[in-house]
Design a protein that fits this description.
Layout: E1 2-6, E2 9-15, H1 16-33, E3 36-41, E4 44-49, H2 52-63
């Protein structure tokens, strides 16, 4: 696990096996605390777990032409 920053948001990196063991807690942390998690498989980033509201806001911004998709 490593920790970095994604703008003002703290971001952790977890291997898939670590995330699998912690998935329920990580989903709650994303929802309630706004945490972001980069999911690595074989040492490569494959996915990102982010709060739904954060993701929806980015989708709305992209569809309004405010940010690139």
């Amino acid at each position: 696990m490593t920790v970095g920053t994604l703008g003002p948001v703290s971001t952790e990196r977890l291997a898939t096996n670590e995330l699998r063991a912690q998935l329920g807690r990580r989903i709650d942390n994303a929802h309630f605390k706004g945490e972001h998690v980069i999911v690595d498989k074989n040492g490569e980033p494959r996915a990102v777990l982010v709060p739904y509201d954060w993701w929806q806001d980015k989708q709305d911004q992209a569809s309004a032409g405010l940010t690139p998709p």
